[in-house]
Structures are given as structure tokens and as C-alpha cells.
Amino acid sequence: MTDPHEAITGEMISLFREDFIRLQQEIGKVMVGYQSIIEEVLIAFFAGGHILLEGLPGLGKTILVKTLAEAMDIKFSRIQFTPDLMPSDITGTNLIVESTSGQRGFQFQEGPIFAHLVLADEINRASPKTQSALLECMQEKSVTVAGHIHRLEEPFFLLATQNPIEMAGIYPLPEAQLDRFFFKLVLPYPTREQINEILNRTTQQIYPAVNKVLDKGKIQRWQQWVRGVYIAPHVQDYASRLVLATHPEGDGVLHNVKKYVRYGASPRAAQTLVLAAKIRALVAGRSHVSFGDIAPCAKPALRHRILLRLEAEAEGISTDVLLDRLLQDVAVER
After folding, report:
1. CATH class of 229-334
2. CA distances in angstroms from 75 to 36, 72, 119, 156, listed in the order given
3. Domain boundaries, the chain
4. Residue pLDDT, tens place only, 92-141
5. Cα–Cα distances in Å, from 160 out to 11, 73, 289?
6. I need a surface site. Which of 53, 129, 190, 219 has the fewest CB within 10 A?
7. DSSP secondary-structure letter at 174?
8. Rounded distance between C-alpha atoms, residue 25 and residue 35, angstroms
9. What are the beta bridge partners of residue 284?
10. pLDDT digit string (tens) for 167-180?
11. Count of other CB atoms within 10 angstroms of residue 281
């Protein structure tokens, strides 16, 4: 594959599916279960988006990202977020250096954000000031220090993790930053069989080796190529209507939304639904998007972009419960 604008042919779809499935298999060598989570991580990756991964300690959030990095020939970096972490600890800073002639000047020292795949571990432990240092990186793929813009090398993929139960010493992510995440994924607790399989893989002498599948050049070409998948206007309109249905104002608003939602999802959510659906279509072996490709993307694309009212918390209504009802109430075709 040499041209990112190459037509969506059956041969190209087969090549993409082969790389996608090989990545799934390599990650599956280490990760037990979580097939749908792995698939959604790869969908976000090929769409050029970022992931917010939420789960209890010890469920393999860090292992998932490290294994993904091992399966690709790209630069990997891990940032452990703590309350005393400063923005410059992430982005880098100007240092005074002395040349061989004795002259002094400033030289930019890159921070750990300068990598292709970045793990922002326990992102909600850092202060809002430090969290905001990621906004420009995520949206513009650049870092501005002392008025100078430093570009991040593409592909750039940020995967942030957070603990949902610990409340002491954490700072919830602001809505503007949450909106920059392509998907928010929630790791469920493993079953009895999965825990036994985890023990088999991690407490014996043999540890599975992960083979490299992609390099950065091929990743970039795939990320451009997937955008060429066709989506019919009426299918795209379904994605638009799903996003608009999360807003509590306007005519014809659903009762559950008006009662429980304070603010609905942004247009970025619609972009996410369409891009994710295009990749789902390719993985299914199709060159066009169907209605069935959009619905499975609703929860990961919307759950972090909807702000609920206090009434929802009081009645135990989560965003996932609300989205289940919304998917039932919004007609596929209209």
C-alpha cells in the first residue's frame, strides 16, 4: 500500500482486515477476555482518536497499552500522573545550554509527550493545570513553549487511564478535555474462567511474545485511507439524530433526556460515530457504512460527552442506561 487516497477495493479491505485482526490476536496473547475493548481501542487508533480507559486497579489497563505498543514499531512513552506533576514535566521545557564557544542559550528539551503512543496513567490524579497541558497535544498535536510551537510526530495516540472508585486526591477531568477523547471505555471485572486464565499466563515460566504488526508509515496510511469509506446520507443522518437526541432542549425531545440530561453531546460525538462506523464496516468486510455499524459505537462515543442532572444520580440512572433507552427510542430511519 503506497497511496493513502487509494480506492476502497475488496483487496484493500482484505489487507486492512488482516492487519486489524493480527493486532487483535497479538494483544489477545497477553490480554484475557476484553475482545470488545480491544476492538474499540483499535477502532479509535485507526480513526486517529484518543482513548479514556476507566477501570478498577489490576484489570490490565496498563498492560493493554504496553502490549499495543509492542505490536507496533513506534515510540512508546508512559507518564505516571501524580498531584505534584507539572505541565513542563509532560510537554518539556527550555534549558540553558552552553555551546563549545562558551555562548549560552536556550534549548528545548522534549518531554515524554513526544512519542507516538502515550500512556497517561491515572490522569485524574494530576491537577487541572497539568491536565490542561494535554489539550493542545490532543487537538492540535503540538506543544507551545515560550511562544514557540513544537510539532508532535504523527501518528500520535493518547490513552489515558483513570480509577473510578478512588475519590481522595483526584481531580475530575473538565468537560472540554473529556470531549477530546474519541472513546471512553469501561473495563468490566473478569469472570472466574478469565481469572484462572490470567493466572495461567502470568504465574508460569513462559510469557507470550508479541510480534510487531505495523510501523508508523503504514499506520498513517491506514488512518487516511479509512476515511474514504462511503456512508449514505440517510445513514449519516442517523448519527446526527442520535447526537441531537442527547440534548434536553428543542422540540420533540425525549422525556428521559429532558428529565435527566443537563448538557448533550457535542458535534465531535457525531464525527466519532461516523469515523468509528466506517472502521467497523471495513472490519466486517464492507466498503459502505450501515445502520448496524453506528449503534454499537454509541456508548463509547457518547457516555463521556453527556452531563447528567442530579435527578439522574438520585435515581441511579447512568449515562449507559440512558443511552440504552435512547437507542430504543431514536428510529433508525425517518
Report:
1. mainly alpha
2. 25, 9, 11, 10
3. 229-334
4. 888 888 777 777 777 788 889 999 999 999 888 888 888 888 888 888 89
5. 35, 20, 29
6. 129
7. P
8. 10
9. none
10. 656 788 888 889 99
11. 24
